[in-house]
Amino acid sequence: MKKELNIPGEIMLQFLQDNEEGIRQILSWFLNSIMEYEAQIQAGAMHYERTTSRKAHRNG
Questions:
Q1: Torsion of Cα atoms, 48 then 29 then 5 then 42, to 10°
Q2: 16-27 pLDDT, tens per residue?
Q3: pLDDT tens, position by position, 1-60
Q4: CB of 23 within 8 A of CB of 11?
């Protein structure tokens, strides 16, 4: 399952204006995306998706 990265425009603009803060925001966005993807894999479903193959519940 290959997914294209989609960095929000605000983060790119922040990076161009202030590299140090921009890097922080890019890393934060990237790590949050990784955690979200991992949760989807472990649950066996997307956020709010109901499937019969769902393996777990998400809280929060």
A1: -40
A2: 888 888 888 888
A3: 455 567 778 778 877 888 888 888 888 888 988 988 888 887 877 766 777 776 666 665
A4: no
Written as one letter, the residue type at 5 is: L
CA neighbor of 11 nearest in space, from 27, 24, 22: 22
Report the predicted TM-score, pTM, of the whole model to 2 decimal places.
Answer: 0.61
Cα(56)–Cα(60) distance, rounded to whole angstroms? 13
| 12/22 Cα distance (integer angstroms) | 7
HEC readout, 4-54: CCCCCHHHHHHHHHCHHHHHHHHHHHHHHHHHHHHHHHHHCCCCCCCCCCC
